[in-house]
């Protein structure tokens, strides 16, 4: 399976990374090399094998349903590129 | 113990020697902190630190000195200054993951592992440089520039060498005596490979031993914090303070932290060490193969029985890793959207989607973009099963290989990396060649097993080579003990000649 310029642009768009045509062009062979190399996994017989989801057996814990955090609005906003009136600010999204 | 006025001698001490010398009154904690602060300040040429925090080191030292003067019980790491990889969030101190994206990010909270270390009395010398978002094996992807290894090839070759990665600031700083120990994180070898490249030791504990809370996430099913230092004992000391249950990390193991330092013993009688035959491919570097053979003899000398074992899926570990790690990274790094923290790039008239794309184009380096895009692709509709599900199945087979091998032995001995350190720039043009650095370290990461690198000797160029010990899940003690047996027999005392 090999990917072309259009696919690279689609992946970049899904990744929310803007790329120029030249950058996308340069990525075509790079990504194809890496994907071509990982495709060797297809030759492994995995009949009856369950996909691994946890490396070390561990149980999911339940915690008490209680408020243990919060009331830290200013801390949460402290590193925002733009915060106004106690909110994160973003470009206008509704006309 | 050194004379308290000899600053060089203080920075040559191990963590254990600093701890014990401070307790015994041979020197004050402030003298130690000042000596390391001076070494850090004088080593700009290595570019090991992104932020230096001499005042934090002095503050912790003064607290230790005051506690001692008042006759209070001393904390386990009282008087010991350390370096903190800049992947651990530190309250009030910039945390960047060596990225432009997080330049200026000043956490309002402290990572669990760093907090545990400060609570144990350690002081912070600064935030250590690394590969950007911990993605790299040579520390060449940092937005803040390459870390330069303190080591040089012998014979007048002046090439700047790689300190390994991603914990390259940590490895360079320890080898250059800028700090006696440091934190690292290891996703596919990021503690062990840099340790091997710089002639120091480092251990990646069992997945879940150290909390991931507050560590900038790369691949969450693989990321594990661990210590790096010059001796096995120092690693045991540090790990005791770093490990432990944390309800804020859903994969944290709710287990007592063993007394690893007290349990150290290099007597390996009755232990079986497996030598995985798949780790000796055709074309394995002859000096690495010879060191491995010496390692086998050292472990036999310590009383261990050596047996050959097979890990048949070894060759698939790297491609499995390079599906799973980018997949998880693409998901984890989706948080960098220019809204909540970090950089924002808002072109004139741009809408929200354009802002995301511009922010991420400007904030991420080429290797980070490459991995996010690989991850996005293997998780995308139509390809998920062929790539990601298949990789998760092969990962299960790799873990089963280890389980079966550990029916025949207690530990595994392998090389740490396929080569000694290489020159900066030498492998950067080819991402795949760089990925192959992790060929011996990635399998244990995929299986979540504890694994340690210890220095074994120098190659013909005068550069350090390391051996790796892999243990059963939760059996860090046996890993440390075998590491100690090698350390005692290798007698590795080489250090880089100061040029910086």
Main traits of this protein?
heterodimer, A: Histone, subunit A, two-stranded antiparallel sheet, 3 helices, B: 500 residues, alpha/beta, Amidase signature (AS) enzymes
Question: What percent of residues of chain A adopt helix (DSSP H or I)?
Answer: 25-40%
The CATH superfamily of the domain at 7-268 in chain B appears as Amidase signature (AS) domain
What coarse outline of chain B follows from CA principal-axis ratios?
globular
* First-to-last CA distance of chain B: 27 Å
**Count, helices of chain A:** 3
- Please identify, by name, the CATH architecture of the domain at 7-268 in chain B: Alpha-Beta Complex
Record field, number of beta strands of chain B: 11
CATH fold category name of the domain at 5-42 in chain A: Histone, subunit A
Residue share in helix of chain B: 25-40%
**Main sheet makeup of chain B:** 8 strands, mixed
User: What Rg of chain A do the Cα atoms give?
Assistant: 23 Å
Helix and strand element order of chain B? HHHEHEHEHEHEEHEHEHHHHEHHEEH
CATH architectural type of the domain at 5-42 in chain A: Orthogonal Bundle
Query: Proportion of β residues of chain B?
Result: 5-15%
Main sheet attributes: strand count, strand direction, barrel closure of chain A? 2 strands, antiparallel
- CATH topology title of the domain at 7-268 in chain B: Amidase signature (AS) enzymes
EC number (chain A): 6.3.5.-
Pfam families (chain A): GatC
Enzyme class (chain A): ligase
Protein name (chain A): Aspartyl/glutamyl-tRNA(Asn/Gln) amidotransferase subunit C
Compact overview of the structure:
The complex is a heterodimer of chains A (95) and B (500). Chain A has helices at residues 5-14, 21-38, 73-77, and strands at residues 83-84, 87-88.
């Amino acid at each position: 399976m090999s990917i072309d310029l259009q696919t690279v642009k689609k992946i970049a768009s899904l990744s929310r990374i803007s790329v120029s045509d030249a950058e996308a062009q340069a990525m075509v062979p790079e990504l194809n090399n890496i994907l071509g190399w990982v495709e060797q996994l297809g030759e492994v017989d995995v009949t009856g094998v369950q996909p691994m989801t946890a490396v070390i057996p561990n149980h999911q814990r339940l915690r008490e349903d209680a408020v243990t955090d919060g009331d830290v609005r200013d801390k949460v906003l402290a590193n925002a590129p733009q915060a106004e009136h106690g909110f994160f600010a973003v470009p206008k999204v509704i006309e | 113990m050194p004379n308290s006025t000899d600053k060089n001698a203080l920075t040559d001490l191990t963590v254990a020697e600093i701890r014990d010398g401070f307790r015994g009154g041979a020197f004050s904690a402030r003298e130690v902190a000042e000596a390391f602060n001076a070494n850090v300040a004088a080593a700009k040429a290595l570019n090991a630190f992104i932020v230096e925090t001499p005042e934090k080191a002095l503050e912790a030292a003064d607290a230790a000195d005051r506690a001692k003067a008042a006759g209070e019980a001393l904390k386990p790491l009282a008087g010991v200054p350390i370096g903190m990889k800049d992947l651990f969030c530190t309250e009030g101190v910039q945390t960047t993951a060596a990225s432009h994206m997080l330049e200026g990010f000043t956490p309002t909270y402290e990572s669990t592992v760093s907090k545990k270390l400060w609570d144990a009395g350690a002081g912070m010398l600064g935030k250590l440089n690394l590969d950007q978002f911990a993605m790299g094996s040579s520390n060449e992807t940092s937005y803040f520039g390459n870390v330069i290894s303190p080591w040089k090839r012998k014979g007048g070759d002046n090439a700047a060498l790689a300190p390994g990665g991603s914990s390259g600031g940590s490895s360079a700083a320890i080898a250059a005596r800028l700090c006696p120990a440091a934190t690292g994180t290891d996703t596919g070898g990021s503690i062990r490979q840099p340790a091997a490249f710089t002639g120091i030791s480092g251990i990646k504990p069992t997945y879940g031993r150290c909390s991931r809370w507050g560590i900038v996430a790369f691949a969450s099913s693989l990321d594990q914090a661990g210590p790096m230092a010059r001796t096995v004992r120092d690693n045991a000391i540090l790990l005791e303070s770093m490990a432990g249950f944390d309800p804020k990390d859903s994969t944290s193991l709710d287990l007592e932290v063993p007394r690893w330092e007290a349990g150290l013993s290099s007597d390996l009688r009755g232990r079986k060490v497996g030598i995985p035959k798949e780790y000796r491919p055709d074309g394995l570097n002859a000096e690495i193969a010879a060191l491995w053979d010496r390692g086998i003899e050292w472990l036999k000398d310590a009383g261990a029985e050596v047996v050959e074992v097979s890990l048949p899926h070894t060759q698939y570990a790297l491609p499995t890793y390079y599906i799973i790690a980018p997949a998880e990274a693409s998901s984890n790094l989706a948080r960098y959207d220019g809204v909540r923290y970090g950089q924002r790039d808002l072109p004139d008239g741009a809408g929200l989607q354009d802002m995301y794309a511009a922010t991420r184009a400007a904030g991420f380096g080429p290797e980070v973009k490459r991995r996010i895009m690989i991850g996005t692709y293997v998780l995308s509709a139509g390809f998920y099963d062929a790539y990601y599900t298949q990789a998760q199945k092969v990962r299960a087979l790799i873990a089963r290989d280890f389980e079966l091998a550990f029916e025949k032995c207690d530990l595994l001995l392998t090389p740490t990396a396929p080569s000694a350190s290489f020159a900066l720039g030498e492998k950067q043009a080819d991402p795949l060649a760089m990925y192959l650095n992790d060929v011996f370290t990635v399998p244990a990461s995929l299986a979540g097993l504890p694994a340690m690198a210890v220095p074994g000797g120098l190659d013909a160029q005068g550069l350090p080579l390391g051996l790796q010990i892999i243990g059963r899940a939760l059996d860090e003690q046996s890993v440390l003990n075998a590491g100690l047996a090698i350390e005692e027999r290798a007698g590795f005392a080489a250090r880089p000649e100061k040029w910086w």
